[in-house]
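Marked as duplicate of an earlier ticket. Keeping the data here for the record.
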Amino acid sequence: MVRLSHVQGVAVSGTNMKHWNYRVLEFFDEETHERWRAIHVVYYDDQGMPIHYDEHPAAVSSEDLESVNGLKAELWSFSAALNKSVLLGSEFPTIGSEYSVEGDAR
């Protein structure tokens, strides 16, 4: 696991542009003392620092009804998340779905 202050993000250009990708996040329940991990969409600021994640874990889906290529691409993106450091959900300043990103920058 890596503290957010030590994560090297992806270089992003533009003043308002935000980048996103799939990442593994670890959570801890204070009441039950259980830990779990899930893949979430994580958003980055202009300096490439993770600042936000979607509240619900990501799901594999595709609008490509002609083939399974869309699903393959999503699974590839999920597998890429497994090769990155695990982030702690408790260290993010915000959660939810208030951010939107232009384009498909994973």
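See parent ticket for discussion. The two ends are 21 Å apart (CA to CA).
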